[in-house]
Sequence to fold (207 residues):
Amino acid sequence: MIDPRLTDIPVILLAAGQSRRMRGADKLLEPVEGAPLLRRQADSARAATDGPVIVALPPPPHPRYAVLTGLDVTPLAVPDAAEGMNASLRTAFAALPTGAPAAMLLLADLPDLLPAHLARVLEAVDLDSDTLIWRGATEDGAPGHPIVFAKSMFAEFANLSGDGGGREVVALAKGRVKLVSLPGQAARRDLDTPEDWADWRAERRER
Fold:
């Protein structure tokens, strides 16, 4: 059961990367079950909360904005997105509502991550414990996404730089992190190259 204080938890969806390894294509616009991956992931985030869904995006104009049309999400341009993921984290955490007791962070390029997985991580969150971070993990225990950060961690994102993806903030929690096992490799499997996408689609056809 999800803590009532978390029913309107803000969700940050990181979608400002440059998709460099796709050799001209955009991985977040690849179709998955009839919709661009980014729209599908935004739908999943929207299903996880009654609160705001903040989608960090490259500066406009950019095709990713169009695929979010009609969704109840907040596009957030990251002016310095080319710097790396930490620029998106700085910008998105600065945009969170002041009263939020926690926030969920989600990567947009994890196509096996489903709304039920987000709910499972939220169900594990205990705001009255000394845990500061709750995060999805693979079935063999490798940490991944989504990640829920307690409010006391928000300020740590303000001075991040580079492309560390928030690892510095996780390190500051000094072990006060709870891993939540999710099926298979859903918490970590991203598709960064055309070959990754081809392999993933082939696996789905074989099921």
Q: What stands out?
A: The chain is about 25% helix and 20% strand. Strands lie at 11-14, 31-32, 35-36, 53-57, 74-77, 102-107, 133-137, 143-150, 177-181.
